[in-house]
Design brief:
Aminopeptidase; alpha/beta; zinc; Alpha-Beta Plaits; five-stranded mixed sheet; 13 strands; 12 helices; globular; 2 domains; eight-stranded mixed sheet; single chain; 419 residues
Amino acid sequence: MVALLNLCTKLNLVLLSETEQKRNKFPKKLNNSKFWGYNFHFHSITNLFAFLSVQVDFWYPDSALHIVKQMEVDFHISAAQSNTVERLLKQNGISYQIIFDNLQEDIEKQLDGDKNDGYSYEKYNEWDKISDWTARIAKSNSTLVSRIQIGKTFENRPIFLLQKSGEGNAIFMDCGVHAREWISPAFCQWFVKEAISTYGKDRDMTHILDNMNFYIVPIVNIDGYVWSWTQNRFWRKNRSNTFQNNCTGVDINRNFDVAWNTADSSKNPCEETYCGSAPESEPETKAVASFIRSHLPSIKGYLTMHSYSQMILFPFGYTYEKTANYNELNELAKRAVKAIASLYGKVYKYGTSASTIYLSSGCSDDWVFNQGIKYSFTFELRDKGKYGFLLPESQIKPTCQEIMLAVKLITNYILNKTL
């Protein structure tokens, strides 16, 4: 996000063109797209946009319900509607600036090489490469890692979990809940690589793996992730389409059975935060929840990776009430944020989800906490909006390196509490 005039609500707007469908690295071309920054009284403008049938897709926050004064807001609209929007802004005396002249170019720039290149920990990998990697990593490190299938997606793709072999207490980590957040699954892959390659060499990692198991789901929302590579780079939800309308997908992180459909989420299948027809209505949600329920005695910590906005969050999201161990979680998050900053100086915020960003219900971290796993954290990875969901591949390594410091710190703390 860019620095804008601090008048009222601050908004960054992405204008997308969907008129060209030439196939290149991504089927849906967005030529002549623009990334704009605006300042205005948001709700009056969105009401006007709605009247004029201007479709708004929110990036941050997840929906208009969370927008308050002084919040930075990112969303995109089609470039076909850009003239209408620009005219409205000028008529209302609203200042704005163009951030990116062509969003499609930035989509292409996110990948350093051709997407047909081989697998790499420093590149964004398509699902088939990640699936092959899970099999390969388990086979070549069979004494340390095994792969199991915990369920299937709506489109019948297997949901794989990598686990560190052995008995004892464990940390559950998942990535790729929201399809367009590519840096998230990149981190899960990086973590597995680092754990294996430094075991027996790095004292902290060796101590952790000798005394703590890990359950890692590299990508929860596989169908959506595939769709984000092949059809719509900014797809968020899964690909469930059992509804009696033309809208597809459920927000998996609004589908857990905790204060379901009480805050933030929508019952409208066309909305990005659609919570589904019922708690755990989605096979991806059910696969994660079922595995955690069946391993509750051993799971002592939960880490879920998202992007973007650089935050470490903990329960609750559906209420402003504090957990019984709030002080402990807050101090642990504070220490983790300090560890992140120690490497490249990146500043992360921390706190409860409700107070740090906005109220949200049906989220995995709150559900896990209410199952009795009291160390439950959501990571929002880089960046703060300059690239948003288009974080360049050149930032995969530094992002993963700094988050590794936080994950090891949190894991060590949990380990010391449970030994």
